[in-house]
Amino acid sequence: MGVQAKPRDDEREKPSHFGHRQRLRDRFLKGGANALADYELLELLLFPGKPRQDVKPLAKSMIARFGGFAGVVNAEVDELKAVPGVGDSCVVAIKAVQAGIERVLREDVLGKPVLSSWQNLLDYCTASMAHRKIEEFRLLFLDRRNALIADEVQQTGTVDHTPVYPREVVKRALELGATALIMVHNHPSGDPTPSRADVEMTREVIRAAGVFGVQVHDHVVIGRGGKHASLKTLGLI
Predict the structure, then answer these.
(1) Domains of the chain
(2) What value does the mean pLDDT of the chain take?
(3) Rounded CA gap, 43 and 62, in Å?
(4) 154-158 long-range contacts, Cβ below 8 Å, gap at least 24?
(5) Cys bridge to 227: 24, 124, 128, 223, which one at CB 3.0-4.6 A?
(6) Among candidates 27, 44, 36, 86, which has minimal Cα distance to 61?
(7) Residue 172 contacts by C-beta under 8 Å, 6 or more apart in sequence?
(8) pLDDT band for position 19 (50/70/90)?
(9) Is the pLDDT of residue 9 over 60?
(10) How would you list the strands of the sheet with 148-156, edge to edge?
(11) In the chain, what percentage of residues exceed pLDDT 90?
(12) Do the strands 228-230 and 148-156 form a parallel or antiparallel pair, or are they unpaired?
């Protein structure tokens, strides 16, 4: 009886999930994201960080924990690291997706007249702010053509309050040479209904900015699930 030859490296037994990974990649390349369930798309992101592990159970548990793919991508770094089995490599892959989404959407509005591409602006603000756990007050500074020249987070606050100082808003607009601005903040509760404090603060900023010829076009409140509220549309300013 002859001696059996040792199997080559590429013939040795591969992990049981190897075929699943390749099939998932093939489906994605052929059909795009629509060919995959949310947990399967998340699996693709987890593959590099878990090269020898079946990540399907982890992906499914993360989707359930954070309420969907968007919830996972928008989760804070500490929240992701708190999930058993999720290390730095996985966190980087997930947060890189979020950063990429925000960068693409920002490029769609930067330097363009925002009043004529309003939906693009809302999409960008929603991606950037809707899932924040605390209130964030953002200022969009515009030039004479109403093109976006700067986008800055001026203040962050608690789960239901952000301090806003009209003098600081106007000062920054003048530093940038902006002639108009749009105020944006999020409601972590998910309900974009403006509060009385939101309306009063907006009117204070409008009065202060008007002294220096800076126009406030709107104040938009970002909620969850694509919901938003425009104080101008509501007739509150």
Answers:
(1) 17-103 (no CATH), 113-230 (3.40.140.10)
(2) 88
(3) 10
(4) 158/134
(5) 223
(6) 86
(7) 139, 141, 152, 154
(8) confident
(9) no
(10) 148-156, 136-142, 180-186, 215-222, 228-230
(11) 63
(12) unpaired
Owner of token pair 């938003």: 228
Q: How deeply is 201 buried, as exposed, middle or buried, from its count of CB atoms within 10 A (0-12, 13-18, 19+)?
A: buried
92, amino acid identity? V
The residue written with tokens 């404090």 in the block is 197
